[in-house]
Here is the input.
Amino acid sequence: MIIDFIKKNRKAFYTYGGLILAVIALIMLAVIPQTGVPYNNIAIDFGTITLGTNDIPIQIAWYAVFILSGLIMGAYLAYLEFKKIGWNTDLLFDALLWAVPLSIVGSRLYYVIFDPEPSYNTFLDLINVHGGGLSIHGAVITATIFVIIYTRIKKMNVWLLADILAIGFLVGQIVGRWGNFMNAEAYGPVIESQFILNILPNFIKDQMFIAGAYHHPTFLYESLWNFVGLVGLLIIRRKRILKVGDLFAFYLIWYGFGRGAIIEPLRVGGDPGDALRMFGLPTNVVLSLTLFMLGGLIIIFAKKRFIKDQPYYVDMFVEEETGAVANEDHTV
Here is the structure.
């Protein structure tokens, strides 16, 4: 029975298994050559260039490598899904050309606005990602606004596109968190449980040994939480259970709850400068729980009052026999 299931879903096993192996290989590539801790967070160093009196390093950080890898993997899965529902994949590539840079700007702007230890004296300080930080919440907010505008222009079903991109968001968050690992950031308070210390791999414990103590690797907790959510959504989206828009809503619920109720409260107990603040409150806790409630409102209220009669997600797939789309109306 198991063998038959694997044969039936062979293409999916190849796709997702290949992505998992790629992530593992990337982590190994980043960690194995290291000769000490904390790990060197620079993947490639091209040296420096001199502009006036300033020497500017030309480097590619592991953080950027993991973020870009997550983006590519998420885009690849979106590409496969576009083909399944019969959409022109050029629409995806056109969207990415705008969405990616805008999301980077949004994630940086979000970080700068809520940075608990701001030190931005010039415009260069504001855009200096190498010396500053990014926030996934800013990227999600920016991408969501872009998707709404883009689908209006292209006359696409905004909820169907949001469903597809939700998977990409989770993949990006799973892989991207390992960039935080290489930077020895996104950690929680000191680990007091011997059980946790025993089960954590040594290479993770060593990198989380900060200020003379082992700290909770909240980057890992979030990555695993999102991985569980990803597996669940990948399974149920192939069943005739979810209607168009439900996948995105469940993404907001899963990610918002995990980040707001589990991960961020731990990070508040870690590096004081690591938790962004809004009026003295942890910004990411507030925003994550807001995403959680927004997802619930979409399922409970909006889907029943304003966007009724959406088709089942699987009914949007192209029929293999005829090449026709099961539901030709892609607009809201």
Summary: Residues 320-332 have pLDDT under 50 and may be disordered. Residues 61-316 form one domain.
